[in-house]
Structure formats: structure tokens, C-alpha cells
Amino acid sequence: METGFLQEQRTLEGDLNSKTSHKNSVDYLMNWFRSRSIFVLAYGTGCGAIEMPPTFTSRYDAERLGIRGAATPRQADVIIVSGYCSYKTLRRIIRTYEQMSNPKYLLALGSCTINGGMYWDSYNTIKKLEDYLPVDMYVSGCMPRPESILEGFIALQKDISNGKASSWQKYEDNYEFYRKNQEAVLGKTVEPSYEADWYLYDGGL
Amino acid sequence: MFNEIKNQFATNDVIIKRDDLYKVSVNYERVFSLIDFVGDSYNYKTLNAITCTDWIEDNHFAITYMLTTIDRRSTFMIQTMVSRENTKIKSLSQKFKQAEIMERDLAEMYGIDFVGNKNLKELSLENWVHTPPLRREFDTLEFVNNHLTFREGRDDNVDTKVEAKRLRAIKKAEKEALKKAKEEAEAKKIQEENQDGK
Amino acid sequence: MENKHITIFHGPQHPGITGNMSVELDLIGETIQKATTHVGYLHRGFEKLVERRTVIQAFTIVCRICVPEPDPNEANFAMAVEELAGLEITPRASYIRVMVLELSRLAAQFLWMAGQSGSIGLYAVGQWAIADRDLILDLFEELTGARVYHMYIYPGGVRRDLPEGFLERVSKLLTYMKKRLKDYDDIFINNASFKNRAIGVGIVTKEEAINNGYVGQILRGCGIKADVRKDAPYLIYNELEFDVPTQTAGDVYARALVRRDEMDQGIHILEQVVAKMPEGEVMVKMPTHRKFKLPKDDTWVKVESARGEFAYYMAGDGTENIRRMQVRGPSLVHAFTLLEKLLVGAELSDVALIMNSLGICPPEIER
Question: Rounded to an integer, what distance in angstroms lies between the CA atom of residue C188 and that of residue C113?
Fold first, then answer.
């Protein structure tokens, strides 16, 4: 029987290897890889971002679970919406989320993403994140402690390894629903546009 | 110092709030000359903040300029009242560089036009078409109810007193039901014992 | 070959940004020609929300105005309400407040150290600093029940008394910190790679600092002894003995040295507070606790936060609600007037360095 740190590690990872609900061994292997290497986008969208450094540095050490940071959306697997989400940020989050490559997951921190939290009567924050973007895991609290964030990640890892976390699929299937909700708060123009014309601008690079 | 201000700027409204905080209320026409005067004569050279309070019942905004001395030991509040409708105020951005951003903030939140400030575009909001949010007539709760959906089960609008009464009543009813059940059980027990006795 | 302008956004999604904000940079090659700051990504409308709430309800949300160090907000709010309502807090409450403020300043300096070193690629310092900051957060958790948002400094005193043996744990932490900070000197402050990057970058002159209303380390980094704790003492700071460290160079390195010296001074203040802590009540008796009314009056209070002068304007109107609460955070002017000026002519790789050294915190700019 292990004690201390090793025991904690085993308890946390205990369910990750369950073989239920996999189609075949390739799926199982793919999900295993995905769940063990989670790259988190460096985007602190709200005040929950202040608990990200402790989570990722030596004390709570998320890297022991295969969770670490990534600088750009193309390389990231998970985007964390850390707390309240103003319209101006929501526009950037949507843009960033759509730039990330599949499979991608969204972790929402704090009561503000769940039901508005403290800012339930604020004119500039949205109240329910899942109307605008698909959420894989909510972590409650104001703000969530590093332990809760780790718990959220582990729950997400379990979902990934069981093949349950498929919010990006949901987003593609129900794109019109999400788009309608997004336009309801952001207006018809979800700027900036997707046409990458800067390299053609002014005679090209 | 205060006598001089009272005489020169025709005001009686000088309040010493703390040892390091004075407040003067003057007419709008005299504000900018007063700012120059205290800056030149008494070293209040740094503009720390511009604030605005909406007194909707008196139909005016109270604009307050906070000026600090160079040694930062004393603060001067210069307050003036301006009309709430189509408010136009001379900008201080020529004299103080930092006024530009402060005025930009107020212009967005109250819809005040600072004449002479070239950079009055949106600061915090994006594509905002409604009433400027910090004006008193803008009701944020009404706005939220009209534009956004809440998750079901969030009952923030409940009157706490009524809610406490309701919860107390439920608790009381539960307690009574429990008591009743207990009594019935006891009565049954006694009955059974009696039957056993027979 | 002809020079080509490229416009890029530094942020809001960027590892080298101090919060959710962005700087639009106009570049020729690596050199910045023009910088424009964009904020507003964190606007929640605090000043509107406070108008709708009673004093006790507003008290729970004010600490959320500045995320890295929420306690100056609570102190400012409490001081403004006390001044309007004419409350006088007890000596013990004053001492506890100073202790909380200084601990939070120390925690914020550690967070700055992590950000500043991360901006030049010294990631080991970040790992250390965040772990050491957590030791302070543990004390906060014991005292207030929360790691980050404490909601502890309440109008009329502090929310609860110190737990048993708390002061011993504080002094134990201070002994550790004193020993530990020397390691930071070796790995970070005296590190040649930091010196090479920081000396001569982002220079602010004295005249400019006074005229444009800069505060905090930017003033002290160019030789002006400005500190609200000395200039307009609040709470019990006039009973304590401490220095205001200054440097004359006015560059990024000077500001780093000022911050480093302030950490020593903070530990010195905390030692005095622990030694002098008086006995007594921590909360004055308030008959109208839940229906607290503010008179029709206004005031302007300020405290020294880890990044400079943090001020509140508050006006009451004779009802239970606050009529107006305006926040003047230290980085309001820094993020616009100063940053936009300092970045012109700087290299692209210095943007994160300069931003961190100014201590820009977007949530207090847009509230």
C-alpha cells in the first residue's frame, strides 16, 4: 500500500484506465494519449486566472498529470474560461475557440460562468456560458481553489479517456444554435473577420 | 488660502474634510481658472482623478477634480455642477496628459462630451448602443432581464424576509409531521403491547 | 529595401500579458513605432452594481475589483464608509488591517516577481515565487477562510479576531522569508541576464512622472520619495518605523530594485505589527448593521497598494445605498499615457518586460 503523494496520484488516476465504452483498441489508445497530455491555452479571461499560476507551478504541480500550458490556440487542447465573461471577451473567446484544432475541450471556472455569480445583474457579462460555447466541465467556486481546478481537470481526463468529452462535435453539429445566441448578444458582426488577407496586403510580404 | 479663493472665485462652499483634504464648490465658469490658480500659487500641480456623480433628482452632474501637491501630502477637491442634458465640458487634456484617459472613461459611462479631447472613443464597452450605463436612468437589472437568460433555479429576486418566512413554515410543517408520526408510532406500540399483554 | 509596417496585437490571448488586455503594436521590423492600449475585456460595471446594493452587499463585491491584491480595495471601501458614517475603529482592528495589507502587499510582490522573471524567460523564479506566495495565502486562508478574495476588512473593523497562535505563525513565516529573499537576489535581482535586459529600458524622467500623475514604484524608481503611508498616513502607519526606498535611474531595473527593497521594508513593518499588536475588540458596535445609512456627503480616500496609490471617491445620499463609488486604480494612467509612450522605439521582445515592470492590472482600469 502506497502512502502520501503516490497514493494521491493513484487515487486521482484510478479510473483513467477503465475500458468501458471504447469502440476498439485504437480508440482506447488515442483517448489514453489525449487524456494524458492536456495542453492548456494561456488565456486568462477572468479573475479565476489568478489561481492558474499556483495550479501549474511547483506546489500543486498540474504537470504530474500531464497538464501544461500552451502559448497559441493551434497547439492547445483545452481553453479555460476563468470566470465572468464580458461581451468584449466573449467575442475573443469565440474567435480563439474556433481557431483551436479538434479535439478541443472547454473548462469553465467559477460561479460566473454557471449562472452569472456575483455579477448576475451586470449589464456587461453573460450569465450562462453553455448558450454560447459548448462546455465540457464546470468547476464551481468563487474563485475555485487549485485543488478544485485539478479535480475539474481529472474529471475531464476521465471523460476524455472514456470517449465522453465531445463538446467540439456538439459545437459543429449545433453551430446554428450557438451562432444565434452569440449574435443575440454580440450583434451580427462577430469581428474580426476570418479572411487572412494581411499577407496579400500592400503587395505581399 | 481659503479667503483668497472665497474672494476671487465667489464661493462660500469651502470645506476642510480632513487635514489633508479640502473641497471647494464653484460655478462651472470659474473651475478652470481655479485649477490654474491653485496649481500656480499653492503647488497643486498633479491631477489625480476626475469623478462624476449623477444627481438625477436635482438634474445635474457633480464633476470633481482631484488635485494633489507635488509632495503628495494634500488633496484639493474642486467640484462643479453641470447640466445632465447634452453635457459639454472643456477638456483638460491640453494641460494634463492623464486627463485624456479619465475623460474618455467618463465620456463613455455618462455620455459627457469633453470639448477639446481628441480621443473620446469607446474604452471599456464595445458596440454599445443603449443609454450610457452609469447614468441613473439606466436600469441594469431591467437590461439583463431583457437581453440575457438566466439558468433556471437562480432565485436572486426573492424578498429575503418572505423567503425566510416560507422556509420557516416548511420547517415547522415538517417538524409537526415528524411529531405526529412519532406519536402515532408510540400509540401503535402501546396498542401492540396491550395486545401482547392480552 | 523599403520598410514595411506590420500591425500586431500583443494580447488579450498572450502568455506575456499582465491580465486580460491587449496592446496594438505598429512595427517596422522588431522596433515599435506606435502602441495603442485596449482595455475593457474585464468590464463588469462595478460602479453600477454598487449603486444598486446596500453597504453590506457592496462590501462583498469591492474586493473583486483588483484580482492580484484585493485587500487595498476592502481597506479603501471600509475607510470611505467609516469616514462618511463617522465611525472610529479600535486599535486592534487597525493593527490587524495593517497586517493584512502588508501581507497582501508581500504576496503581490511575489506575483510580480514571477511575472517579471517570466517575461525574460527565467521560469525557475516563477516556480519559487508562486510557491512562496502560497505560504502567505495559507495564512490568509486560516485568517479569513479564503485564499484570494478575503472579504475581511469590514466597515467598522475586521470581520473576526485572529485565530490562536496566528501571530507566531506570521513571525515564523517572516523568519523564513528573510532567509529566502536572499536566494531571490542571487537567482533574479543580481542575475546578469536580468540586468542586461532591464538596465536602460523603459526610462521615466522625474518631471514627466510628476506632471502626468504617475504613482508608486514609477515615482520612487526615478527618485521621488512618494508613499501614501508616509505622506498621508492612514490606520497606524505613523506609529510604525519604515523607509521609503528610492532609486534614481528610472528604468525597469530601478523599479525592480525598489520593489525588492519594499519587500524588506514590508517584513520590517510586519515584525513591528506582530510585536506591538494590542488586545481588545476588533469591531465597533454598530446598531444598524444591516440597514447602514450614509449621509449626503462625499469623500476621497487612498491607500498605498503594492503598485502605488489606490484611491476611492465615495458619495452617499442619505439612503442605504451608495450613490457613487469611483475607483482610481494605480495603473489607470500607466496603462495609457505611460505605456503607449515607453513602448515607442522599444523592441517587440521588451513589451512584456516593460508591462510587468509598470505593474499594469487591467481589472482596476475598467472595473
Answer: 9
Residue C313 to residues A201, B66, C298, C300, Cα–Cα distance (Å): 48, 10, 7, 5
Above 80 in pLDDT, residue A16?
no
The string of pLDDT tens digits covering residues C288-301 is 666 777 888 888 88
- Examine residue A142 and state whether it is found in any structural domain, yes or no: yes
**pLDDT > 70? residue A6:** no
Domain count, chain A: 1
Looking at the predicted structure, is the pLDDT value of residue C279 above 50? Answer: yes
Q: How far is C46 from chain B (nearest CA, A)?
A: 10
Instruction: Determine the average pLDDT of the residues in C328-332.
Output: 86
**From CA B109, how far away is CA B115, in angstroms rounded?**
16
CB–CB contact A116 B133 (8 Å): no
Residue A51 per-residue DSSP state? G
Name chain C's partners: 3 or more CB pairs within 8 A: A, B
Question: Could you tell me the CATH number of the domain that includes residue A121?
Answer: 3.40.50.12280
Q: What top-level class would CATH report for the domain B2-153?
A: alpha beta
Domain over C45-326+347-366 is classified CATH 1.10.645.10: yes
* Residues in chain C closer than 8 A to B97 (CB atoms): 211-212, 337
Asked if C221 and C250 touch (Cβ cutoff 8 Å), the reply is yes
pLDDT in tens, C339-355: 888 888 888 888 888 88
Does C70 contact chain A (CB < 8 Å)? no
Find the chain B residues whose C-beta atoms sit closer than 8 A to any C-beta of A.
124-127, 133, 138, 140-141, 143-144, 147-151, 153-154, 156
Look at B125 and C40 and tell me if their CB atoms are within 8 Å: yes
Q: What is the pLDDT of residues B8-32, one digit of tens each?
A: 766 767 777 787 888 888 888 888 8
Name subunits touching A (3+ CB pairs < 8 A). B, C
